[in-house]
């Protein structure tokens, strides 16, 4: 016993010393932003740490070579916890210099006064005029003061991923209309070995459902002229009913609790022929099937005859107000959005560059689905419906408040009409409240 | 416990009067520095409107949050009812299985060391990982159920089976806690007692009832209490396994708190819900300790 | 002393032999011991097996066995995601928190079990109360405190925070273990001329070995698995821990179950190995009788 305890004490001492050593060694760099040798250190938080980490590590390496006086410290935040991390950091006063931010929580961050507007920087930057115009507009709409608090980096679009050989085997081509789509789903279903479709019923369900509903109905605004939500438009209700009818008939029963990982697990297991997500899951599918086995088509054109797209949240970079090295921070943002970096990042993730110069790069043309996505987004015939990301409550209404209700719809415990009426009412109220607070 | 009164054989009564305070001082210090303020802040915010998504409406709320919770929020009551069911079923089964397991691996047999480390190992698996594994197991397309002759069963998606599925998952991770603790408790039982009981002709069952169980009593009382509190507040498993669904049938009170305070950023209301949970746990714990006559002189 | 331990372990066997023939005992043992154990092992091991299958088979494979075998997921987590660093950090905070928790809990538990002092009940209830509020609700005040102490981004914030949250449970459990050691043992040593402190180290501590191991392993595992504090108090890639690494593999744009499983194997294997080593100490301590003799 004596010898055990002595060994333990020794081990603890060694650990404590090594800890002290690492802690001290590391601490000098962070916080104040000034390290030895006159080097400026800035921290960068990646809002989707993990698979994208190597992409940023490469970009940071390139940046530091071009700017030897700046050191960028990368911190990867898991996407599921990124809002909680930002909220804690803002409340605790320990924000990064630069962070990955999307418009789905931008209003919350600016509401707490955490971010620095980018308008002045952009006006002087060589990137002025190079970033996709409607994305800049959509960012500015998100905040009451109309300033640009986040610099868009990537454009995304909802698509339907499918396994080529499954469609070939059933002699189905990528559907163009919703009728074709539902026929295809039926043809592709051979229970219990294969399902034509998978429904996202768990976390993140509502956004995808709305994207489908508006694509189907062709309704072109989120609120009508009187400020009432259009979510419960009869045509939207019709689509939700049609989707709910697929549940268990053409889709796995497990769908009702599907979040992204579960949905992808089903799709990549090969049992599901088609799956709705966005461009960003490209790498998952390629890893599972190989680049030549999987492809995507945009959501079908609906009753209006015009392609209607619900705008995805804009993902990009923001500089935080507390940053002590704003010059270096903007320099880094500038670098990340340069043609070369922006092209590299989007090529790796399979999304569309926000830098229009980078959109002409050859890798885009080599992926037909991506090329058609660029065309869809750029086409004057496409109707873009912008969800009210400026409502700070938007994310809780479309997540915690209504996800369980959609599950009830799938389980047959609630009618689609009642579900959409409830959501519409919440959105209308939130809109009124917001207008009152900002008038 | 009775023996505590007989302390002071050496070192003098004066020195001993301070000894317990000295011994608990590090704990008291740590709690005072790190927990008093955070707990106080939760109680404080329960009386405030504090919602990041409606900054214009923040301010003193009085008992408004509690009124809404008690009279206008059916989910508070349903989540509370589910929490009670969850804790009782989960702890009851964990205790039974844990005790059985402890007794089994306390016997001597070949490969005992290996068996012990294997049955204890799920305890070492974190919540994120437990749910990750069990999602894969339960999902009909990726899981193991399809080899068990039920290719279509989506246990997590069906309101009738989801409870059994989440209970099983938490058992997997929770039983080893009881098993380890009770196994450690078993070591305190002097072997002579069993020998004496065996000489008296007591069978296995009677030896268990008259020797083992009384000796484990305190350990069982404490472990069930502490684990109940822990299971009550356990969010990570259900949050990732079912997200409280389908259709809210597996939403516990703390899961509901997480949804309101963290996802919907309504920290004031979340604090009120937490305060309610705090008071309920406090009441139940005191009642439980009283009813179990914990610390009473039962050994003499 | 060693023989004493062995003799004690054999007690049940001897008692059984006294009751009836060996053959009946064997059948009883199968029903009573091996069958339930085998069933429980099956229940325990299937999820592990499934994790290993996912960790070792290529992405996209649906085979029920890890064949063809691949180590690509392990390379991903260890090199790309950075498990090499996370692993080191988790070990450091786990071990430090284990020692801190166990030492402080031993003191507190001893005080609760051996002394009746004014405020004892209050102390006990206060300990319980600290467990009634989920950590997630206290994040921002805790963050503020650690920031005030200059510990944000340091592994010490995790060591301290996890110790503080481990303590109440550990103290209460430890008091149970101390109470189970008969006070006469301690008294006898003191009568022999030991001071109370020496009596504690010489005779009580060895008997607490199973309890120390149980409490210590709880502390270690809680710390090892704590995701929330690690992510919230640390904003430095090189100071993250394994649970943060695990959460990297599952998210909106990556559902890499192979990497999750491989990360899980990395996280679980060392703990299982440590269990395998320490479980042998979960046996009778030196008994009261041995000291008297």
TrEMBL record, chain A:
SUPFAM superfamilies: Periplasmic binding protein-like II (SSF53850). The keyword 4Fe-4S does not apply. Pfam families: SBP_bac_1. Keywords: Cell membrane, Lipoprotein, Membrane, Palmitate, Signal. Residues 1-23 form the signal peptide. This is Sugar-binding protein.
Automatic annotation (TrEMBL), chain C:
PROSITE patterns: ABC_TM1. The chain crosses the membrane at residues 33-56, 91-113, 125-149, 155-178, 199-221, 257-278. GO terms for biological process: transmembrane transport. Its main location: membrane. GO terms for cellular component: plasma membrane. Keywords: Cell membrane, Membrane, Transmembrane, Transmembrane helix, Transport. Residues 87-278 form the ABC transmembrane type-1 domain. It is a multi-pass membrane protein. The keyword Transmembrane applies. SUPFAM superfamilies: MetI-like. It is found in: Cell membrane. Belongs to the binding-protein-dependent transport system permease family. This is Transporter. It comes from Sphaerisporangium rufum. The lineage of its organism: Bacteria, Bacillati, Actinomycetota, Actinomycetes, Streptosporangiales.
